Write a sequence for this structure.
């Protein structure tokens, strides 16, 4: 009997070529909106990662703020001056720098809450779908209860409760953590329901049956056999939810129950600008609002494209 | 049918109890009402008396039972902030919110439905793509950004519409309305547009995707073969068949509407329930928070219940699914 030759691993260039020709990449190359959105997000991610190097000012360093440079309009208007391209606010803070630093906070909180709620949701979905019975019933009714209260209300309440429980001096430091928790508590259900449905289908398939026959431990079946097969669904859901998470964070911060003024996210910047805009300094509020809208739009367009690209029904 | 109603009612009661438990927990652990209601110089005796009078010495399950019992009768106690009964405070704010939501929802339905049908019929053309992109932008723009831009343009630059408040209102006994005065109507324009924009893009996306599904079904082809006019096919045959899912999902997304209304009210300082709620969060006015939460959830659950029931009446297949038990789905 001939010994099977292990197939040689394709070279890197071959694999790249294969990836380039894959369905999803083809669809990406032929969707201008997806390309523009991805480029925009990369730009935002890049600028906010290297904000210290790229920006003229660290907006949170009091030593770099000059009151005589306060309320400057953008450079293309009369009275504007370099390097304050988008003008300054009432404390002499450069609006562009504040936006770029704020985007970093918004993106980080959005991404963290999506990752956490995805992990929690996938775990609960797996347990619920594979074990069934009482566990399933309890977890899903819990999910129903969470879903029956409007998401934003839950987030506001959770955030208010945590802030009420913490002593005032810790509130600002824990604000990002509180936000991530509040957003996770409200959004795990979506993942759990999706993953549960897929798990129930997978659990009936032959490879799981085979694993059970040779007495693979239950934990191993769930984590090593079923989990990889539900991950795709979870990841698409996560992309679609990232926009929602960023929006929710911005809304909470805008309402004054999110990030504090000392560490402003985009929502906080808009709230601060909103208080002053009857004095005619529209640039303080408009540019952060524009950046926030562009980020959410780009994420949503990408998510939309990804869902269509992975949906076999539309081909 | 009866079975379904009972099942849904049972579920609704359980969910409401869970929400009540949540509201009660906030009551119990967030802030000390005794400290909030008395002045700082109060003696220990006064504190003890108030604690006793508020029933805070009772066992916790008994307190919860009392809370539920009172809540069922619409009794949520006194607002800490202005010492008025909570229900009175909320009842004052309710008309403002309802008028805003009604006007914007009707406007959104009138504009969103035809746009959605249009985008589905013209699927693939440049116009449809533009319509899709516009609706995507509509879903992505945060509510407060829409409001802020509207205020910047129409109040600060053009100075044609008021930036905040409700204008003059007419008191009709239990109801205050802004429809009857010019300033009331002017004040309603921007908040209503801001709220309607979100709903329009939302309804439009939903109708488009449902229409695309329905248009593939054979009966549409038969209708075409019968030589029916395109308009009759789209609006009488196709649209009708995709309205039910649209209604259902709209019911489920009522929560988003509440959230959007809340944010819109803050931006325009519209004296409605959402504005009241955010204020009560900032002032830790717990009875108002709890009452708002309970009322909103009641409305939310009620709407979903009604939607479910309409669904059964209109679409007999659902009833059979429920009766079929495990065979269903």
């Amino acid at each position: 009997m001939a010994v099977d030759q292990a197939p040689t691993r394709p070279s890197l260039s071959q694999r790249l070529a294969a990836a380039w020709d894959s369905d999803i990449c083809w669809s990406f190359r032929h969707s201008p909106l997806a390309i523009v959105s991805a480029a925009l997000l990369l730009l935002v991610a890049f600028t906010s990662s290297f904000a210290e190097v790229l920006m003229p000012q660290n907006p949170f360093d009091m030593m770099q703020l000059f009151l005589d440079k306060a309320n400057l309009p953008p450079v293309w208007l009369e009275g504007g001056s370099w390097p304050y391209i988008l003008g300054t606010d009432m404390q002499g803070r450069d609006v562009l720098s504040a936006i770029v630093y704020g985007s970093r906070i918004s993106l980080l909180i959005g991404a963290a809450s999506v990752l956490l709620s995805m992990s929690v949701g996938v775990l609960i979905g797996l347990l619920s779908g594979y074990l069934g019975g009482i566990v399933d019933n309890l977890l899903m009714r819990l999910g129903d209860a969470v879903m029956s209260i409007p998401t934003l209300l839950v987030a506001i309440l959770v955030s208010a409760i945590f802030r009420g429980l913490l002593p005032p001096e810790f509130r600002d430091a824990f604000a990002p953590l509180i936000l991530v928790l509040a957003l996770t508590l409200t959004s795990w259900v979506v993942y759990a329901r999706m993953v549960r449905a897929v798990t129930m289908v997978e659990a009936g398939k032959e490879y799981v049956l085979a694993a059970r026959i040779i007495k693979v431990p239950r934990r191993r079946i769930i984590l090593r056999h079923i989990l990889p097969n539900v991950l795709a669904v979870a990841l698409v859901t996560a992309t679609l939810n990232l926009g929602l998470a960023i929006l929710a964070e911005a809304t909470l911060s805008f309402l004054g129950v999110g990030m504090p003024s000392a560490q402003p996210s985009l929502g906080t910047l808009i709230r601060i600008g909103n208080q002053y805009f009857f004095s005619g300094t529209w640039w303080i509020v408009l540019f952060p609002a524009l950046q926030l809208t562009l980020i959410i739009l780009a994420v949503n367009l990408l998510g939309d494209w990804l869902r269509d690209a992975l949906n076999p029904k539309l081909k | 049918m009866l079975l379904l109603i009972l099942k849904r009612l049972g579920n609704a009661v359980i969910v409401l109890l869970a929400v009540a438990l949540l509201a009660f927990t906030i009551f119990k652990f967030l802030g000390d009402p005794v400290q909030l209601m008395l002045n700082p110089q109060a003696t220990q005796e006064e504190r003890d008396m108030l604690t006793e009078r508020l029933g805070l010495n009772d066992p916790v399950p008994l307190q919860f039972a009392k809370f539920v019992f009172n809540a069922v009768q619409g009794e949520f106690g006194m607002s800490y902030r202005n010492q008025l009964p909570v229900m009175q405070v909320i009842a004052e704010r309710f008309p403002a919110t309802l008028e805003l939501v009604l006007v914007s929802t009707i406007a959104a339905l009138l504009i969103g439905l035809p746009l959605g049908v249009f985008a589905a019929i013209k699927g693939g053309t440049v116009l449809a793509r533009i319509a899709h992109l516009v609706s995507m932008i509509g879903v992505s723009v945060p509510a407060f950004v829409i409001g802020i831009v509207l205020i910047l343009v129409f109040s600060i630059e053009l100075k044609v519409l008021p930036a905040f408040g409700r204008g003059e209102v007419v008191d009709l006994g239990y109801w205050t309305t802004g429809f009857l005065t010019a300033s009331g109507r002017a004040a309603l324009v921007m908040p209503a547009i801001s709220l309607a924009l979100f709903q329009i893009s939302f309804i439009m996306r939903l109708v488009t995707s449902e229409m695309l599904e329905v248009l593939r079904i054979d009966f549409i082809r038969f209708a075409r073969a019968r030589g029916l006019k395109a308009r009759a096919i789209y609006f009488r045959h196709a649209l009708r068949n995709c309205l039910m899912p649209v209604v259902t999902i709209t019911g489920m997304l009522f929560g988003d509407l509440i959230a959007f209304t809340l944010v819109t009210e803050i931006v325009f300082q519209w004296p409605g329930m959402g504005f009241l709620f955010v204020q009560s969060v900032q002032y830790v006015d717990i009875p108002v928070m709890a009452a708002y939460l309970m009322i909103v959830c009641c409305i939310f659950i009620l709407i979903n219940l009604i939607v479910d029931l309409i669904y059964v009446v209109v679409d007999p297949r659902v009833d059979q699914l429920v009766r079929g038990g495990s065979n269903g789905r």
User: Anything to note?
Assistant: The mean pLDDT of chain A is 80. Chain A has one domain: 31-56+81-314. The radius of gyration of chain A is 24 Å. The first helix of chain A runs from residue 12 to 21.
